[in-house]
Amino acid sequence: MIPGVEVAMGGETWLIPPLTLGQLRRLMPKVRQLTEIDAAMGESQIGVLVEIVAAALQRNYPAMTQEAVENLLDLGNAAAVLNAVLTGSGLKMRSSLGETVAVATPDSGLKMAGNTSTDSSPPPAAIVTL
pTM of the entire structure? Predict the structure, then answer.
């Protein structure tokens, strides 16, 4: 099993690993769809959420399907599960005063603001508004 974040879905505990860089690159436009400030949770956003979670779960559970993920996710766990996927992948969604942001790491594909020099410091993280 690939290390990740344990989450409860459908009465079981699942180990959700981070997305691979390839998955993250492919899914980044869809992650942005979920973080649009004026985006209400609709059919399109649910489909994107399911696709992102399924992609991560398939690393540890190759037989996992998007249909199975739809039956595991509910309104009580969807935010925590998405946060587990994105946090493990170097991103984090949070809502504060109606603003949705993502925390970006240098390899997350998001544009970073500020000094990004790493000569003598740990990798930078920046908060960007999508």
Answer: 0.68
Q: Is 129 exposed, middle or buried (0-12, 13-18, 19+ CB in 10 A)?
A: exposed
Tokens 């699942």 -> residue: 14
Res 84 pLDDT > 70: yes
Tokens of 21: 């860089």
Nearest-CA neighbor of 124 among 58, 113, 99?
Answer: 113
Tell me if 125 sits within 8 A of 116, measured CB to CB: no
User: Residue 106: phi, psi to the nearest 5?
Assistant: -55, -30
Burial (CB count within 10 angstroms: exposed 0-12, middle 13-18, buried 19+), residue 86:
buried
- The pair phi, psi for residue 51, each rounded to 5°, is -60, -45
Least confident of 26-35, 66-75, 76-85: 26-35
Where are the alpha helices (H) located in 11-109, listed in sequence order? 21-34, 43-60, 66-72, 78-88
Q: What is the mean pLDDT of residues 55-68?
A: 97
Confidence tier at 54 by pLDDT (50, 70, 90): very high
